[in-house]
Fold:
Amino acid sequence: MEYRIRLDRMEFRAFHGCYDLEQQVGNRFTVDMEITTELGEVAAQDDVRLAVNYLEVYAIVRRTMQQTQRTIERVAMNIIEAVKTAYPQIRLVRCRVTKLAPPLGGKLQGVSVELEA
Structure:
């Protein structure tokens, strides 16, 4: 049996962007993630050590967000790769990275990319 873990609207200040100024002053970003993994004995044994630990997943995302990139596509890819490396039992990760209030010359709540692997 599979199950899903969702981490919604994790918010970070980071320095991603294609413009040098973005990499100097930073911006606010949110990350939404859905992880699909095998349930195995997690529920039957009620043992968090057998589960994908969402506290550790959050820490992985936080560390990955500190690595400055030019594109949010690369940021999302880095997050997926790091999470899947830490938890090989994961079958699928869907990750959306949103740059809040991007500098596009007008009012815009955010721009997002979503990857899954």
Q: What stands out?
A: The domain at 2-116 is CATH 3.30.1130.10 (GTP Cyclohydrolase I, domain 2). The mean pLDDT is 94. The chain is about 30% helix and 35% strand. Residues 20 and 70 are 9 Å apart (CA to CA).
